[in-house]
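[recover] target loaded
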């Protein structure tokens, strides 16, 4: 609070490939600190994905800056490499605050506002804005509720706590609409994205015990349907929702023949270690990596690794 109050200019940054929590938290900080009279710039090097352009004042988000700031606030980013090219702007600021619900060895900054029990960075930002004496506008509340809803699957995931719901209630009280956010984020898929989901589900296979379920999207599917890899977002969660599945994988064949892999687990299974084994990243329940082609070989290697991980976690 003191660091914010003593800063005149503030840079707010989120991670590459930003999600609803990253951009919702970023915009809430931008709007909140502006209401205190600060000069504030928000930077997301990958901009704002189409699905999040309903967020109030999203056009305020810049993809870069050449200015220098008294203070940089980095939200939801795990470690500093995740902010991409905005790293220099962060490091050239007078002071750096790391605000995150990912508690990782990569934590950084002069001040670390980290809480691994928070369902989303938006929860921590809510507390920060409250401590700063910001009165929440409907716009700020919408940004924060978007963060909560996207990181909790609309308050369904195991990270939801009484505090998550209490903050959600306050945000609705302040003018945020869960139905508007839900509609914009979860029921707003592109045509190609929905067709890719159909293609992927057609390919679903499972191990004989049903514990591993996986699906593929081939390069020719992208060509025929005109979709991009970004439009496969969310498919792996649908794959995982099969009864009895402990882990799910979605393999996408890239034009260069490499396979991009998204992994999801139900506790106690752990897919973070599997992704890490192949040079990827993520955490226990959601992770990703890349594998060499061809597809059939990548499938064999991946399923063997997932089987081993399931054995290790006692599933
Ligand atoms: Mn988050």
């Amino acid at each position: 609070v003191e660091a914010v109050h003593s800063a005149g200019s503030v840079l707010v940054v989120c991670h590459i490939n930003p999600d609803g929590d990253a951009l919702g938290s970023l915009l809430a900080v931008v709007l909140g600190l502006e209401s205190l009279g600060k000069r504030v710039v928000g930077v997301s090097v990958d901009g704002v994905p189409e699905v999040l352009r309903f967020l109030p004042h999203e056009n305020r988000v810049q993809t870069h800056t050449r200015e220098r700031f008294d203070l940089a606030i980095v939200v939801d980013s795990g470690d500093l490499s995740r902010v991409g090219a905005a790293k220099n702007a962060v490091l050239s600021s007078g002071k750096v605050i790391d605000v995150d619900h990912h508690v990782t060895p990569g934590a950084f900054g002069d001040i670390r506002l980290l809480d691994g029990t928070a369902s989303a960075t938006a929860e921590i930002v809510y507390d920060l804005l409250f401590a700063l004496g910001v009165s929440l506008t409907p716009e700020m509340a919408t940004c924060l509720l978007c963060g909560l809803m996207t990181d909790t699957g609309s308050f369904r995931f195991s990270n939801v706590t009484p505090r998550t719901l209490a903050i959600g209630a306050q945000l609705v009280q302040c003018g945020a609409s869960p139905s508007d956010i839900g509609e914009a984020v979860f029921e707003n898929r592109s045509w190609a994205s929905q067709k890719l989901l159909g293609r992927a589900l057609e390919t679903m296979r499972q191990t004989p015990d049903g514990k591993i379920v996986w699906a593929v999207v081939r390069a020719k599917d992208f060509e025929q349907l005109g979709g991009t890899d970004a439009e496969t977002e969310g498919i792996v969660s649908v794959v995982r929702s099969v009864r009895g599945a402990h882990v799910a994988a979605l393999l996408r064949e890239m034009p260069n023949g490499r396979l991009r892999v998204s992994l999801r687990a139900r506790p106690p299974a752990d897919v973070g270690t599997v992704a890490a084994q192949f040079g990827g990243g993520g955490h226990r329940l959601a992770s990703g990596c890349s594998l060499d082609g061809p597809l059939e070989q990548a499938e064999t290697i991946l399923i063997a690794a997932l089987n081993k991980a399931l054995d290790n976690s006692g599933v």
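[recover] notes: Residues 21, 76, 101, 120-121, 151 surround manganese (II) ion (CB under 6 Å).
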